[in-house]
Amino acid sequence: MTRLKRYRYVGPPEILARQVGPVGIVVADTPSALDMWLDDRRTTGLEEPATFVVDRHGTLRVAPRQNEHVACAAGQDVLAAGEITFAASNTGYVVQAVSNQSTGYCPDPDCWRQSPQHLIVSASHIQAASPPH
């Protein structure tokens, strides 16, 4: 089994010290959990990217963009971090874009390929993510 690369928080220590639970986070460990979170965001607009991390257990965690990645990750190491944009489709939701935009973790540009893509694809109504922009 291939060991996945983990990223430690490398951002400002004062942000780590004050990290609090993110507002509006979803731990997307099931397709229905992600569905409910996206349904709620649909009323305020899906156009704005969301903060995401894939925790060290491989679980996708998503929060509104104003949240710090380290808060989304509960201060822990991650397998991937960045921003993700969803759009509504006829069958549910699709991922429009995924990036590695996280100055707190500074993940590799293709970090999302090692984990969130397979999580996103595993939900029958979510399609594969596009390459980072």
Task: Characterise this structure.
With 133 residues, the chain is α+β, with helices and mostly antiparallel strands. Helices cover 22% and strands 25% of the residues. The protein contains 4 helices and 5 strands; from the N terminus they run H-E-H-E-E-H-E-E-H. It has helices spanning 13-18, 31-42, 69-72, 116-122, and strands at residues 26-28, 50-55, 60-64, 78-89, 92-98. Strands 1-3-2-4-5 form a 5-stranded antiparallel sheet, covered by helices on one side. Strand 2 (50-55) and strand 3 form a beta hairpin. The longest helix has 12 residues, at 31-42. The radius of gyration is 14 Å and the shape is globular. Residues 116-133 have low confidence and may be disordered.
Secondary structure: elements and pairs:
Elements: H1 13-18, E1 26-28, H2 31-42, E2 50-55, E3 60-64, H3 69-72, E4 78-89, E5 92-98, H4 116-122
Antiparallel strand pairs: 1-3, 2-3, 2-4, 4-5
Helix amount, in percent? 10-25%
How is the largest sheet built, in terms of strand order?
1-3-2-4-5
Largest sheet: 5 strands, antiparallel
Proportion of β residues?
15-25%
Give me a quick take on this structure:
The protein is an alpha+beta fold and 133 residues long.
